[in-house]
Amino acid sequence: MTAALLRVEDLRVGFAAPGGTVRAVDGVSFAVDAGEIVGLVGESGSGKSVTLRAITRLLRRTATVSGRAEWRGRDLLALPERALRAVRGREIATIFQEPMAALNPVLTIGEQIEESLAAHGGLDRRARRARAVELLGLVGIASGAQRLRSYPHEFSGGMRQRATIAIALAAQPMLLLADEPTTALDVTIQDQILKLLTRLSAELGMAMVLVTHDLGVVAETCARVCVMYAGRVVEAGPVGTVFARPRHAYTAALLRSMPQGGAARQPLVPIPGQPPRLDQAIPGCPFAPRCGFVEARCWTDAPPFSQVAPAQWAACWAAERVGAC
Amino acid sequence: MSRAGLVAARLLQIVPTFLAIGAVVFVLARLLPGDPVSAMLGDRATEEAVTRLRAQLGLDQPLWTQFLLFAGRMLHGDFGTSIALRVPVTAVIAERLPATLVLTALATVLAVGLAVPLAFVAATQAGRWPDTLIRAAFQVGLSSPIFYVGLLLLTVFAAGLRWFPVGGYGDGVAGHLYHLLLPALTLALSFSAVIMRNLRAAILEVLQAEFVDFARSKGLSRRVVLFRHVLRNALLSTVTLVGLQVGTLLGGAVITESVFAVPGVGRLMVDSIFARDYPVIQALTLVLAVIVSLAFLVTDLVQMWLDPRVAR
Questions:
Q1: Furthest-apart CA pair in chain B: how many Å?
Q2: Per the CB < 8 Å rule, is B218 touching A115?
Q3: What ipTM did this prediction achieve?
Q4: CA of B223 to nearest chain A CA: how many angstroms apart?
């Protein structure tokens, strides 16, 4: 196996809350290779967005972060602020769920693209403008020269997300962290944006971590997937393998709760119950109360994250039985 | 609508405002108990003298005749003659207005200059000691009455240390500024406290916005994130606040001018009310109303300039 571009190890993020510390991310590890698209999938509150934001330290002061985020030999979580700024945008860019909220309402699209270019130097004003037009063209926004003078509120939802992608791509990053980039968009636009992201990833050789709650999005775009539950990665592997033969009871339940595009009319099976509270320690498997495969030790011992197939890992005591279904 | 069109429309709106205020102020002045004749001649004046003076001043005419006369002249820019001072009202106001305008403008500059950097420090250090210190200091400023602050500054810096004059308006621009600095500071203190609190809250709110995270994720320096992305958005509500406070500031000038013996329109207004000097009261109220309207207009323009979502 080649050296990974990004290697997240035992990442933990806690938020101080009145009832005790909320363990939003509880020992997450995963790796991203160059040019690869990895999906981080889970329900709301599973810690996937927090994981993403912790990597480039975008979380607020109230968050306590530990673990490692190794990026090209350096730990981002221990990097001095100045060195981290050189990585942000230039090497690792981020896009967010709600483009209207991510764009500054009082600055033009052009100003917001050009400040990214200016921050990482190397271009004069005129070259920055030319590059900004080029970037808008790259994400499918025509007549870029005029669009540069537009403000975010003058764009449609899909155009805004295209604009944030243009901003993120400005300094030619090697990795794009995408936090639910299509969730806030219309279904038809969602598909366009996903196709754009996969195309850009392939053309520019840019790796991507795609956070989503939508398994369909993962199936369509990602090579590998990490399934998250209650702040932990419970299963990881190639998308095809994981979806065809899940080894964690939660992944299996999640797949059954999702409509299958071309498949026969199978009834959807919702997952009963709620995800656990994260402000108290969970002794066993966090999914145990909702699990159809639950056994005695699930309540007391946390299952180890172990290899269950050639490239597949799962943290489930019932992995054999789940895989046999 | 284009910006020029918007400005023109706003300027036209001032005209009806002007007329309405004219009518209200005409009635209000006459609702004051007493009249200028008894104020001038005193209690022991003869019946004959009172009648003669009333006729001379036009006060024997029916009220509506007086109003039409007043409104007609007003449209020609003629506000009549001061009853107490016996000179044209326009001349009196033209003489006194600059001091008040300079005082108010200087107070605004001082208040904003004091509040904006400190609000910035307080918000970025929220919950730590600089924040606590700044907020406590402004709380004192906010809760101290203007006349008390004025007297305090006067006692310490003018009478005690003799750094500043005790009162007056001075000569030349430098002299004016020198004489008006203490009174302006007096006015500015409570005003800046209001601005500081508003701006601090606005900055804290903007800091939560996702575009701040996005800006940070681009690798921008902390300075660029704070000034370009946070401060500009936070100032939007503060600009409105400053504009709306101009009227209050003019009201505060009345007290400050009295404490520091500044020959401005604030004191003129007080004197005119005591003398029941109807023409001066009316004209002055109108002038102040126009100034406040213009301040609102300027506020809207600044707002438009700062926020592209307005106006287009």
A1: 86
A2: yes
A3: 0.89
A4: 12
Element (H, E) at A82: helix A81-87
The residue of chain B nearest to residue A89, with distances taken between CA atoms, is B218
- Report the candidate in B300, B311, B288, B189 with the shortest Cα–Cα distance to residue B240: B300
Q: What is the pLDDT of residue B311?
A: 61
Determine the pLDDT at residue A261: 55
Instruction: Note which residues in 54-83 of chain A have CB less than 8 A from chain B.
Output: 56, 58, 81
From the list A89, A104, A151, the residue facing B217 with the nearest CB is A89
Tell me the pTM: 0.82
Q: What is the DSSP letter of A152?
A: G
Do B201 and B124 contact (CB within 8 A), yes or no? no
Sheet holding A312-314, edge to edge: A92-95, A175-179, A207-212, A37-41, A224-229, A232-238, A312-314, A306-309
> Which residues of chain B neighbour A105 with C-beta distances below 8 Å?
211, 233, 307-309
What length does chain A have? 325
* B234 interface with A at CB cutoff 8 Å: no
**Residue A192 vs residues A93, A195, B198: alpha-carbon distances, Å:** 20, 5, 43
pLDDT tier at A1, thresholds 50, 70, 90: very low
Q: Which residues of A touch B209 (CB under 8 A)?
A: 101
Cβ distance A102 to B224 less than 8 Å, yes or no, reads no
Q: Please report the pLDDT score of residue A265 as a whole number.
A: 63
Most B CBs within 10 Å, among A103, A106, A211, to test the B interface: A106
Pairing label, strands A92-95, A207-212: unpaired
On average, the pLDDT of chain B sits at 84
Domains present along chain B, CATH in parentheses: 90-306 (1.10.3720.10)
Please name the residue of chain B whose CA is at the shortest distance from the CA of residue A167: B218
Q: Which residues of B touch A110 (CB under 8 A)?
A: none
Q: Is the dihedral of CA A272, A273, A274, A277 positive or negative?
A: negative
| For chain B, percent of residues with pLDDT exceeding 90 | 19
Cβ–Cβ below 8 Å for A119 and B218: yes
pLDDT given at position B292 = 87
- Is B224–A115 a contact, with Cβ atoms under 8 angstroms apart? yes
